[in-house]
């Protein structure tokens, strides 16, 4: 459970991995170094400056083999962009992504197709993530066709097997997505992602669009599948309550930056960053009559077009002082594997 | 409502009977749904009936038409329809004859043939060009989009009938030339509609999902984006068919479309032009045929739009 932290913020940290480190259980499966994604959304008026959205800023993070890393943060914090950047569905503007010894950032089309067999994504919205004009079987079969997996004669049986694994039946393969409920669709999305037997899956808020009763089922399914396939997972969520049951480690994101990373139990028991503390205090307690002190954050997340100077959280931080505006707080270890970016705590 | 209850019953483990858990109302296939919607709409039924009759007339013209379309009978020139009380009628010629003694009914039937051939071919050609242009412009964006869409703007800014007249004058009249010219006046509409659909569809998560799966750009364009633009394309196509019939008639009327020897509704109108003050009925029949057909295609377009809930 090592968290690699740059001692201070650097734009292009050193990272040298050789191919011999691939498949080495000691090295992380996914390494992000100085990862940055910015979007240029153009000028508002011809005489104003170009507006640049700082969606993901200087992320340094390792995901170990076989672990589930929870990535949490409120809407607009850049979680989804980070998840998609890791798979290069969104192009990073700076930094490096290394997957199992292969540099994803510089991969060409052929290498990228091979990488995409090994890393997959489960989407948030089960209503938008399936092509309405393709049957479930066709959607899964496409994965086999693209990567030339299995003999064409065996594919049908494989699809049936896969659907059974996610709690559907083989006969569902002939149906269209609109014939399913949200929870069932999410299972289809999971089946499709797992069709290529990936090593790494980015689960982008896979349950936040589902009813609470269905959430638990899908979480359990993911947990089972993780054990069965030996998956490594980046589980993105805005709901710390959901994440708690599933993840090994937690990374907390705010306005494109990591503010705290650590083992889940440690972070839950002993949150060190004021933002993490605020998030945790907002998790509902499922015991009637029991209330806890809520630390309600004032205002909204600032615009990522012009993030605050220094610590990005200082505008909403209950303990911020003038020194917070001066420099970006570096990630500091508070205990083994647990780090936070706050100079006040 | 049905959706909610089903969601709550979403099975955890694979259930033997879970096939029954899917939404009951959606077990209907697309064809069944289309038929039901069609039966509910009298206007759409009427329009498809008109289209059906036209196709039957066009396909079986030689068997249905009472006379060959070019057969002239000098003793039976400029006859009135049989219900006319002028006495200048002949029971062998239901709607009378034109100035050269050719049977109007037969010419109308053969005219339907040429009209439909020209309309459908030009819509297919124009649709193909426009859909391709729209897919490329919408998916690739940047300079490809800029070039294609400026061409489309240019096309739409230019009065298409004038363009058709000039092009036909330069190319010479002929059925193939006519099809090409009509197709060229239509492609820009497809390009615009398809492009806007592509812009919408390509941001949907299933397109991202296909990319994440390693699908190449052509697979994404043709397997994922294109099928989701078909509904809008059909709507445009039905309006475009109406426009094509109109252009065919107009260009033929000006003598720049189908050669005068081949009967089309436009040619018949053109022939009637000279005798319009002596013979009220001469331009009436082709005019009515054009009006009803154009109306039918427009109404079919309306129905398709309602059925697929397309917003253009």
Primary descriptors:
heterodimer, A: Rossmann fold, 2 domains, eight-stranded mixed beta sheet, 9 helices, 12 strands, B: 312 residues, mainly alpha, MetI-like fold, disordered N terminus
Please characterize this protein's 3D structure.
The complex is a heterodimer of chains A (345) and B (312). Chain A has 345 residues and is of the alpha/beta class. Chain A has 2 domains: 27-247, Rossmann fold, CATH 3.40.50; 271-345, no CATH class. Chain A has helices at 79-86, 109-118, 136-147, 152-165, 182-194, 212-229, 240-244, 264-269, 274-281, and strands at residues 30-43, 50-63, 68-72, 94-99, 102-103, 119-122, 200-204, 232-237, 249-254, 257-263, 332-335, 338-340. Chain A has an 8-stranded mixed beta sheet with strand order 6-7-8-3-9-10-12-11. A 4-stranded antiparallel beta sheet of chain A has the order 2-1-4-5. In chain A, a hairpin with a 6-residue loop joins strand 1 and strand 2. The longest helix of chain A has 18 residues, at 212-229. The model of chain A is unreliable at 1-21 (pLDDT under 50). In chain B, helix 3 (42-59) crosses helix 5 and helix 9 runs antiparallel to helix 10 (217-225). In chain B, 41% of the residues are buried. The chains are: A alpha/beta (345), B mainly alpha (312).
């Amino acid at each position: 459970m090592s968290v690699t932290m740059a001692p201070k913020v650097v734009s292009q940290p050193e990272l040298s991995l050789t191919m011999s480190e691939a498949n080495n259980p000691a090295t992380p499966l996914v390494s992000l170094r100085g990862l940055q994604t910015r979007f240029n959304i153009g000028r508002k008026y011809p005489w104003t400056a170009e507006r640049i959205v700082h969606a993901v800023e200087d992320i340094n993070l390792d995901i170990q083999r076989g672990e589930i890393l929870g990535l949490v943060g409120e809407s607009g914090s850049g979680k989804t962009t980070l998840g998609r950047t890791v798979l290069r569905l969104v192009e990073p503007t700076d930094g490096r992504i290394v997957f199992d010894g292969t540099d994803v950032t510089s991969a060409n089309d052929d290498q990228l197709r091979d990488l995409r067999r090994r890393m997959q994504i489960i989407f948030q919205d089960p209503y938008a993530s399936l092509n309405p004009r393709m049957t479930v079987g066709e959607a899964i079969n496409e994965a086999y066709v693209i990567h030339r997996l299995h003999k064409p004669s065996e594919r049908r049986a494989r699809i049936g097997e896969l659907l059974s694994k996610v709690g559907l039946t083989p006969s569902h393969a002939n149906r269209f997505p609109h014939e399913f409920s949200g929870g069932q669709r999410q299972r289809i999305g999971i089946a499709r992602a797992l069709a290529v037997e990936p090593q790494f899956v980015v689960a982008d808020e896979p349950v936040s669009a589902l009813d609470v009763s269905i959430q638990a089922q899908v979480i359990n399914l993911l947990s089972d599948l993780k054990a069965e396939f030996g998956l490594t997972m980046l589980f993105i969520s805005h709901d710390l309550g959901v994440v708690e049951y599933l993840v090994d480690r937690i990374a907390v994101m705010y306005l494109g930056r990591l503010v705290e990373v650590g083992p889940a139990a440690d972070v839950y028991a002993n949150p060190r960053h004021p933002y993490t503390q605020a998030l945790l205090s907002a998790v509902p307690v499922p015991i009637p009559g029991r209330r806890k002190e809520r630390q309600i954050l004032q205002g909204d997340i600032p615009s990522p077009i012009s993030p605050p100077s220094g610590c990005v959280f200082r505008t909403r931080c209950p303990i911020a002082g003038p020194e917070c505006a001066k420099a970006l707080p570096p990630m500091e270890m508070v205990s083994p594997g647990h780090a936070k970016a706050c100079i006040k705590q | 409502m049905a959706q909610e209850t089903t969601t709550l019953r979403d099975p955890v483990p694979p259930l033997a009977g879970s096939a029954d858990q899917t939404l009951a109302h959606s077990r209907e296939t697309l064809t069944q749904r289309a038929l039901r919607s069609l039966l509910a709409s009298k206007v759409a039924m009427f329009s498809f009936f008109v289209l059906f009759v036209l196709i039957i007339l066009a396909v079986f013209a030689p068997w249905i038409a009472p006379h060959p379309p070019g057969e002239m009978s000098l003793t039976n020139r400029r006859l009135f329809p049989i219900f006319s009380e002028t006495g200048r009628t002949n029971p062998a010629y239901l709607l009378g004859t034109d100035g050269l003694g050719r049977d109007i009914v037969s010419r109308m039937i053969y005219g339907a043939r040429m009209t439909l051939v020209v309309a459908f071919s030009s819509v297919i050609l124009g649709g193909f060009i426009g859909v391709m242009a729209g897919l490329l412009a919408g998916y690739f964006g940047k300079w490809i989009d800029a070039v294609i869409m400026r061409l489309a703007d240019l096309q739409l800014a230019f009065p298409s009938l004038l363009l058709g007249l000039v092009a036909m004058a330069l190319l010479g009249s002929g059925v193939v030339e006519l099809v090409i010219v009509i197709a060229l006046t239509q492609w820009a509409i497809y390009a615009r509609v398809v492009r806007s659909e592509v812009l919408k569809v390509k941001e949907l998560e299933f397109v991202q999902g296909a990319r994440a799966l390693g699908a190449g750009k052509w697979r994404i364009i043709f397997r994922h984006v294109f099928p989701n633009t078909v509904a809008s394309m059909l709507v445009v196509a039905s309006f475009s068919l109406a426009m094509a019939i109109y252009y065919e008639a107009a260009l033929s009327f000006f003598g720049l479309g189908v050669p005068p020897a081949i009967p089309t509704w436009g040619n018949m109108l053109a022939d009637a032009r000279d005798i319009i003050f002596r013979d009220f009925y001469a331009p009436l029949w082709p005019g009515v045929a054009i009006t009803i057909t154009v109306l039918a295609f427009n109404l079919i377009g309306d129905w398709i739009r309602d059925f697929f809930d397309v917003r253009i």
